[in-house]
């Protein structure tokens, strides 16, 4: 993909693509059964998206991933963050 494509995404979303790529790279070998790792990822995604996550919501996402075996991906976290 060319650089212009990513610049357009950055402009529309306000999200820095370097941050997204750095996060994606850090997830490759992460242990998603480890609560500390999962919490760190949730906080990082929240920071990148500039969308605060309450302690209660963070706990719910962590339980969902660790206990229920949900996959950890941007859509899962975004969907949970958007639920009221």
From TrEMBL:
InterPro entries assigned to the protein according to its UniProt record, in alphabetical order:
SpoVIF (IPR025942)
Q: Name one Pfam family in it.
A: SpoVIF
What's the protein here called?
Sporulation protein
Q: Can you name the source organism?
A: Neobacillus bataviensis LMG 21833
């Amino acid at each position: 993909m060319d650089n212009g494509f990513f610049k357009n995404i950055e402009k529309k979303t306000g999200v820095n693509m370097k941050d997204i790529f750095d996060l994606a790279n850090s997830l490759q070998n992460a242990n998603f059964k480890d609560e500390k790792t999962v919490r760190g990822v949730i906080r990082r995604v929240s920071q990148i998206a500039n969308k605060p996550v309450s302690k209660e919501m963070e706990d719910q996402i962590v339980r969902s991933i660790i206990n229920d075996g949900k996959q950890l991906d941007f859509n899962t976290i975004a969907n949970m963050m958007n639920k009221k």
